[in-house]
Amino acid sequence: MRCPYCGSEDTQVKDSRPAEDNTSIRRRRICPDCGGRFTTFERVQLRELMVIKKTGRKVLFDRDKLVRSFEIALRKRPVDRDRIERAVSGIVRRLESSGETEISSEQIGLQVLEALKSLDDVAFVRYASVYRDFSHAEDFEHVIEEINAKIARDPLDP
Ligand SMILES: [Zn+2]
C-alpha cells in the first residue's frame, strides 16, 4: 500500500483488527520513509454496482466517493470516523442486497440523508441543501419535513 503522504511503496502494517461487526479488517500502517501513519480498511466486494447519474451517465459505484460525501457534510462536526464507516457500510450492504445492478444517484443521496439524519443535524441540513437541487422526490420532502420538525423542537447548537 502506497504511503498517501510521500508516495513510498514500502509501508508496514502495525496492527490489524476486525471492524464493523467483522465485515472488514482495519489495518494501521506506518511509512518507514516519512513516519506517516494511516488506516486502511479491507472488505469483501460482493458485486459491482452501477450508479445512474442525473444526466443518465452510468458510472461504477465508488465507496470512497460515498465516504467523501459524508466527510464533506460532516466537516468539523463531532462525529467519529468509525460511525461514518459504519453508516457507509450500512448503505453499501443495503445497495448490495437490493438485488439491483443499477441504482440512481438520487436513491443513494436519499440513503445518505437518512444516515446523516441519525448522525448529525447540521450535516443533514448541509447535505439536504445540496440534495434539494437535484431531487423533488416525495420521499425527500417527507424527510425534510421530519428533520425540520425535529430541529424546531430541539434547536441546533450555535
Ligand atoms: Zn511516507
Automatic annotation (TrEMBL):
Residues 11-22 have a biased composition (Basic and acidic residues). A zinc finger (unnamed) spans 3-34. One of its GO terms (molecular function) is zinc ion binding. Binds 1 zinc ion. PANTHER family: TRANSCRIPTIONAL REPRESSOR NRDR. Negatively regulates transcription of bacterial ribonucleotide reductase nrd genes and operons by binding to NrdR-boxes. This is Transcriptional repressor NrdR. It comes from Rhizobium tropici. The lineage of its organism: Bacteria, Pseudomonadati, Pseudomonadota, Alphaproteobacteria, Hyphomicrobiales.
